[in-house]
Design goal:
256 residues; mainly alpha; Growth Hormone, Chain: A
Amino acid sequence: MWVILAYLIAATVLVLTAGRLSDLFGRKRAYIGGFIVFALASLGAGFSPEATVLILWRVLQGIGAAFIFANAAALVTDAFPKEQLGLAMGANTMVAAIGLVLGPVLGGALVAISWHWVFWFNVPLALAGAAWGGLILRELAKPDAVRGYDVLGTVTFIVGLTGLVLGVSRGGLSGWNDPIVIGGLACGAVLLPLWILIESRSRAPMLDLTIFRSRLFAASSAAAFINGLARFALMFLFVFYYQGAQGHTPITAASC
């Protein structure tokens, strides 16, 4: 369970932080760096001697993935003119959807060979992505004119969202009376509203909350959240249902 959750928590919690760092130091550099970190973490995960080490490598994988997620759509937006942006974003979304469909099947086949190959398979692809990005991509976006980093907002957000996600995730495993679950949910309930207050007053916020005044942006963000919740939550549960409750092999479970 935590081999999966460690990656998801790290990748989710750090996307905003990765995005802000990318604005300050360059999106291309951050994007390529994310691929390199992901490749190295995948290599290390495949050689993990036991579960705790594997979970730590998965956290590092999530950090690399956060930089990739934070910059993929932004780089597409920078590279294409407005009249071609819809087509470019549609192609980007289509490729991601194809990967979402093929990933479980390919992963099930690799697990049938050896679980190590689930991670080693990522290494050449991630390095190829880094090499392609280094050769093809150009740094088109100008660095953020408002220099500085919102340390207080970043710490508040990371601790608050980590507590919320950890509490919700662990609650189904250990029970909702678990002290860690209660503490995590309490951190989220206190720190996330505090983060909104900090961001509204920060000179260089990690997220400019005024963008949500646009109804179109707010509605599209809500739709994306619901879409992601529906797809990834079900996939996460199906992994354990088909292999645990139903007792299917990895390849059979992936095909289901």
